[in-house]
Write a structure and sequence with these properties.
single chain; about 180 residues; alpha+beta; six-stranded antiparallel sheet; three-stranded antiparallel sheet; 3 helices; disordered C terminus
């Protein structure tokens, strides 16, 4: 089969356009910068509340034990929260080029982190750079008052441990992975 020269150029142009559009669509998702530092992508919000008893009885007040109870209810497993790792009055910076995405360096690398601001609590899964927390404030409740020049995050804590995938589910996952 003979393909006219114009058809070949059109194919190359079409493929190039598709590739360029794909990268343009993916690029905003991958990484944010603070100055010259790559702080990763926005972390996943797993849960937020202004009532630590919303998912089950956790007690009164906002002590580390009631906060940990809520965190474990969100995760559906038991994890740890070391109060000595908690950072009070956490300041943040807006990532370059964004009006709603904020970032701050964590006290230790962690897969999950917990924030509190005023009467709101949030739990995030750290999705890329485990040394940095990156929060898209457009996705959290207005009660967090973020980003704001007047408000700080009253405290943040790295959450230890991870929840385990039950053994049968893990085997099913690997079985599916090997079939593809």
């Amino acid at each position: 089969m003979i393909v006219p020269l114009g058809g070949t150029r059109m194919n190359v142009l079409t493929r190039s356009t598709v590739i360029a559009l794909t990268f343009a669509w993916i690029a905003p998702v991958h990484a944010y910068m603070v100055g010259l530092t790559d702080v990763g992508s926005a972390d996943s919000l797993l849960g937020q509340t202004n009532d630590l008893n919303a998912l089950g009885p956790c007690g009164n007040g906002n002590s580390p034990s009631t906060e940990l109870c809520w965190i474990n209810n969100v995760l559906g497993s038991t994890t740890t929260y070391t109060e000595s790792d908690k950072v009070e009055d956490q300041s943040f910076v807006k990532v370059d080029g964004s009006s709603s995405v904020i970032a701050f360096e964590l006290s230790s690398p962690t897969e999950y982190f917990f924030i509190k601001n005023a009467q709101w609590y949030g739990l995030f899964q750290n999705t890329s750079s485990l040394d940095w927390a990156v929060i898209d404030t457009a996705l959290i409740a207005a009660g967090f008052n973020l980003p704001s020049d007047e408000y700080e995050i009253s405290h943040i804590a790295p959450i230890g441990g991870t929840f385990e995938v039950p053994e049968p589910a893990r085997w099913r996952f690997w079985g599916l992975a090997w079939r593809h």
